[in-house]
């Protein structure tokens, strides 16, 4: 019993030290990395919005399921050269507050609508969305067609993909939710922060062991994530790291994953108006079925285009940012020509 109590005492001490380490470093992060944009109150919470450039139509950038506005940094700076552009953090992510409602698609669309109204960003908009963000901007266009002048969908999530879950999908989704919630707990006790600090400092063995013990995966998962972040401008790397050391980001991911089937069910019942021009960019790994589905979506639009980003993985806006910027530029020029 004495040995057992010693082990318990040591573990308790380590947890308390981890909590203290996380609290001290999180406070430092808040001072080092204040919001780069402004916080706008909407629906009982504050959402973080960053704006650049000037002109109409305004371009609104919608991130993937766990990404913040920082994911669009290359694109935002490029688009700002020819029009006003806004990127934001959904609730739970980046500098935005935690959510006070379920993360179903209709709620997220309503929150974006409230944010744009509260921030004084007038329609019409060109909406650009990546992955899950592509699903959301399509839902926005279906719900508020009079406010949307064009869509640019960057390797978008299909509404049908998570509608009827296969056994494998159910396991994948359930596992993702559990890992995200486990990640939130590990972030609270400083383990995530320690692992990232060691990994980015060049260490490999300890982060690899942490990954295996907590998620069943090794260094490859961390390497893949760090690799995608490494495609962003270097000045945002420490900010992304700070955000992902917070339990909030993991809880946001869990909430979003839990709501994917509901979001698919809502989106499948919405028809995208054919009068709205649509440009779709597909990654090189897309299946023939995905490409055919996107061809059909583009063909339904009065001005639809489908572009294969042959040099890109899923994160086209990080692999080939100029391709995305050019697609947005052409959509903006199309809207301006139609209204002149």
Largest sheet, strands/sense/barrel: 8 strands, mixed
The rough form would be described as globular
Number of domains: 2
Counting DSSP E segments of at least 2 residues, the number of strands comes to 8
Strand order of the largest sheet: 1-2-4-3-5-6-7-8
Q: Separation of termini?
A: 82 Å
Structural category:
alpha/beta
CATH class membership of the largest domain: Alpha Beta
Question: Which stretches are low in confidence, meaning pLDDT under 50 for 5 or more residues running?
Answer: none
Overview in brief:
The chain is of the alpha/beta class and 340 residues long.
Tell me about this structure.
By secondary structure, the chain is an alpha/beta fold. It folds into 2 domains: 39-163 and 265-339, Alpha/Beta hydrolase fold, catalytic domain (Rossmann fold, 3-Layer(aba) Sandwich); 167-258, no CATH class. It is built from 14 helices and 8 strands. It has helices spanning 2-32, 73-79, 105-119, 132-143, 167-188, 191-200, 205-215, 219-229, 237-244, 247-258, 260-268, 288-300, 316-319, 321-339, and strands at residues 38-42, 45-52, 58-62, 85-89, 125-130, 148-154, 278-283, 304-309. The chain has an 8-stranded mixed beta sheet with strand order 1-2-4-3-5-6-7-8, with helices on both faces. Helix 12 links the parallel strand 7 and strand 8. The mean pLDDT is 87.
């Amino acid at each position: 019993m004495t040995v057992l109590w010693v082990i318990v005492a040591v573990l308790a001490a380590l947890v308390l030290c981890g909590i203290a380490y996380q609290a001290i470093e999180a406070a430092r992060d808040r001072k080092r990395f204040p919001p780069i944009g402004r916080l706008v109150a909407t629906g009982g919470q504050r959402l973080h919005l960053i704006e650049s450039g000037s002109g109409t139509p305004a371009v609104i950038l919608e991130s993937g399921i766990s990404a913040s506005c920082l994911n669009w940094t290359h694109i935002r700076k490029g688009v700002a050269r020819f029009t006003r552009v806004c990127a934001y953090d959904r609730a739970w992510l980046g500098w935005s507050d935690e959510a006070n409602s379920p993360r179903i698609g209709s709620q997220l669309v309503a929150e974006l609508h409230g944010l744009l109204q509260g921030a004084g960003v007038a329609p019409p908009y060109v909406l650009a969305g990546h992955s899950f963000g592509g699903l959301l901007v399509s839902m926005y266009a279906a719900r508020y067609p009079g406010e949307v002048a064009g869509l640019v969908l960057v390797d978008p999530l299909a509404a049908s993909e998570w509608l009827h879950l296969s056994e494998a999908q159910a396991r994948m989704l359930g596992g993702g939710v559990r890992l995200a919630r486990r990640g939130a707990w590990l972030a609270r006790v400083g383990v995530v922060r320690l692992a990232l600090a060691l990994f980015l400092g060049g260490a490999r063995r300890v982060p690899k062991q942490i990954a295996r013990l907590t998620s069943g995966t090794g260094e490859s998962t961390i390497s893949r994530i760090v690799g995608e972040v490494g495609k962003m401008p270097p000045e945002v790397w420490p900010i992304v790291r700070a955000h992902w050391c917070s339990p909030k980001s993991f809880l946001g991911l869990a909430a979003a994953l839990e709501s994917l089937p509901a979001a698919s069910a809502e989106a499948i019942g919405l028809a995208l108006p054919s009068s709205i021009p649509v440009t779709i960019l597909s990654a090189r790994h897309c299946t023939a079925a995905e490409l055919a589905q996107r061809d059909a979506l583009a063909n339904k639009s009065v001005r639809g285009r489908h572009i294969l980003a042959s040099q890109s993985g899923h994160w086209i806006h990080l692999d080939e940012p100029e391709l995305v910027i050019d697609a947005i530029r052409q959509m903006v020029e199309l809207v301006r020509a139609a209204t002149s």
